Amino acid sequence: MNATAVADFFQFFRSYLSNPWQVSAIAPSGQSLARLMTQEIVPGTGPVIELGPGTGIFTRALLRRGIAERDLLLIEYGSDFVRLLQERFPRARVLWMDARQLAQYERFTAPASAVVSGLPLLSMSPRKVIAILTGAFRHMQEGG
After folding, report:
1. Are 62 and 48 in contact (CB under 8 A)?
2. Which DSSP string corresponds to 37-98?
3. Reported pTM
4. In sequence order, what are the residues at sequence separation of 6 or more whose Cβ sits closer than 8 angstroms to the Cβ of residue 45?
5. Tens digit of each residue's pLDDT (9 = 90 or more) over 93-139
6. Mind listing the pLDDT tens digit for each residue in 4-33?
7. Which domain holds residue 80?
8. Phi/psi at 54 (nearest 5 deg)?
9. Which CATH number do you get for residue 63?
10. How many independent structural domains does the chain possess?
């Protein structure tokens, strides 16, 4: 495990301890899951929205797939993670907001070609999940 991965683990774990209902996992997702979650995303078809990027493991996988950093819209609720994402991905657009509010906003970029989510949807209420999905589909291009 490299130094960044160790630091990410401790950052994530601290966030979990301070607010377990918000973070909902004790460690960040791994690279294998990130590759799996992003394998069908094609570069050059439009912006990509990432919900709950945390420490940025899926974000890095998107960049490895050829998505331009400027084409990433990262929606994060945890203020500590927002600062970390802004430092790591300065050309991405990082918004500090609850993903369930996404439907209330006009498009931030061109319609998204894909939405990637690191959110623990199974641990959320159906009402919150529907709000998140409604917002995600509202900001996605046809066929996304």
Report:
1. yes
2. HHTT--TTS--EEEE--TTTHHHHHHHHTT--GGGEEEEE--HHHHHHHHHH-TTSEEEES-
3. 0.79
4. 113, 114
5. 999 999 999 988 887 778 999 999 988 888 889 999 999 999 999 99
6. 666 655 555 565 556 555 554 544 566 777
7. 3-138
8. 55, -115
9. 3.40.50.150
10. 1
